[in-house]
Every structure is written in C-alpha cells, then in structure tokens.
Design brief:
binds adenosine monophosphate; 273 residues
C-alpha cells in the first residue's frame, strides 16, 4: 500500500482515504462519495481495530461481510480497498500508541476507556500507510471526528479532514453496523435516540435553554422506552466537548443508549433561533 501510495503521489494524484470497520451501509457510502469527489484515487480501509475495543465489548462478534463490502465498494468506484489483518498492523512487540489529553475525557471516552487511544493510533497508522491528502469521517461519531481533527493539527499531519453528515434510516435511526444486532422490538425502541434529539430541539424552539432541563426531559422520554438504558445524555460545546449550562448558541447534544445489549450513539447540533 505504501508503494502504491508513493507511485500515485509521484504521478500527481490526490489520494482520499475513508477508514471503516466494514459491514458497509449508506452512511459509509456517503463518505465514499465525498472522498470520490475530493480525490483522484479513492482508498477505503476495512479494519476492525482490536485496540479500540475493551475486553467486554463486541470485537469477536462485530458484523462482517467482506464479499458484500467489496461489491458495494466496486459500485461506488472505490479504487483501492485496503483490508489489513490485525497481525499486520499490530505485530508481536508492538508498543506505540497515540493518546490525546482532553477530548477523550468526555462522552464515549468515559464509558469506553480504550476507544480513542485505539482510534487515534490506528488512524495515524492508516495515514502513514495510505498517505492520503484528504480523509473523510462521519459526524455520526462526532467525538471521533473532533479527535482526529485535533490530532492532525497537533501532530502537523498534512491531511485535510472532512466531516460527512449523519445518514439515517427513513424513520430517523442513524445508520450503524451495530443496528444489525437489534431484534424487531429493539429496532423500534432504537428510534428513541433520534426522536429525543428532535424533542430537545423543540424544547429549545420553545425557549427552554437550561441544559439540565432539556437533559432531564430527554432522559425521561428515553427511560420510558422498554429495553433502553442510558449511558449518557450530554449538551456540550462542539469544539471542546465541555458541558454547557445553557443553549445560547449552537451546542452539541450527544447520546449513548444501550438498547438490549447493543450500545447506540447519535447526536445533533441544537440551535436557538
Ligand atoms: P465505522 O465502520 O462504524 O467505524 O464507521 C466508519 C466511518 O463511517 C466513520 O467515520 C463513521 O463516523 C462513519 N459513519 C458511520 N455511520 C454513519 C452514518 N450513519 N452517517 C454518516 N457517517 C457514518
């Protein structure tokens, strides 16, 4: 991959990279289209990164369908599918990790401690291997996107980072490979994530700006749905991810909710008029 990247760069080609963990859906494909428009050569990576999972999480059962992923990639005119093995990226005696200081201390970083150290590390490795000019990440994982942007700035990585909007199912559920785990009852219940984000914006439109009040209303609404267990409901500054007390400018509202045994996330920007 590095040799191919060198050849492409030498020929003056722009490389766009979209990192994924596979089991592709429309959310991924929307990022491919952004990458396609930005680069002469579109590379996607498929790698279920072991270092970002904690031992109790779903590394072993994470959904995979490589043949289908290849087919979808072909349809989207992906030029290169880079799918390394875990032993390729983390050989014996591997010992280097990339760790940010502040942004991981919020939201998903609290309940999933290894997550962002694993993400920052694997994305750095992918950048060094694929040598992209541009890389595209989804706003679905808002904190991840913020962390990658910060890392690229802090470490002087010469790569343009682009965010792609959240792609949703017709009923509003944010697309995710993990939606595959949900049974019919849980699939219905899962709609409460997006619904509660919409409810929060309605409260803001009605002039309620106290974050605590909005969070309480949203939490009550989610708790009323069977099979749900809230990990967090947060209203925070979209730049620092620090909690804000009032929604008096654009604020990030982010949620993580367990539905059955599946942990789902969603977010929106709350905007006062
Ligand atoms: P994953 O395969 O879940 O690690 O996701 C790979 C990339 O796709 C990440 O940048 C995600 O933020 C992005 N992504 C996942 N789901 C969606 C979605 N529903 N809409 C937009 N981007 C998404």
């Amino acid at each position: 991959m590095q040799k191919r990247a060198d050849r492409l760069r030498k020929a003056g080609q722009t490389i766009a990279l979209v990192p994924t963990m596979g089991f592709l859906h429309e959310g991924h494909l929307s990022l491919f289209r952004i990458g396609r428009a930005k680069g002469d050569c579109l590379v996607i990576s498929i790698f279920v990164n072991p270092t970002q999972f904690s031992p109790s999480e779903d590394l072993a059962t994470y959904p995979q369908d490589f043949a289908r992923d290849l087919e979808l990639s072909q349809k989207e005119s992906v030029d290169i599918v880079f799918a390394p093995g875990a032993e390729g990226l983390y050989p014996e005696n591997y010992q280097t990790y990339v760790q940010l200081e502040k942004l991981p201390e919020h939201l998903c970083g609290i309940s999933r401690p290894p997550l962002f150290r694993g993400v920052a590390t694997v994305v750095t490795k992918l950048f060094n291997i694929v040598k992209p000019h541009v890389s595209v990440f989804g706003e679905k994982d808002f904190q991840q996107l913020a962390i990658i942007r910060q890392m690229v700035q802090d470490l002087n990585m010469d790569i343009e980072i682009i965010g792609g909007p959240i792609v949703r199912e017709p009923d509003g559920l944010a697309m995710s490979s993990r939606n595959n785990y949900l049974n019919a009852v849980q699939r219905d219940a899962a709609m409460c994530l997006n619904r509660s984000l919409c409810e929060a914006q309605v409260l803001v439109d009605d002039g309620i700006v106290a974050s605590a009040e909005i969070i309480e209303a949203v939490s009550r609404s989610i708790r009323s749905i069977p099979e749900t267990r809230i990990d967090y409901v947060s209203i925070c500054d979209p730049g620092t991810l620090d909690d804000v007390e009032r929604v008096d400018g654009p604020c990030l509202m982010a949620l993580a909710v367990h539905v059955g045994t599946t942990r789902l996330i969603d977010n929106t920007i709350l905007r006062p008029d």
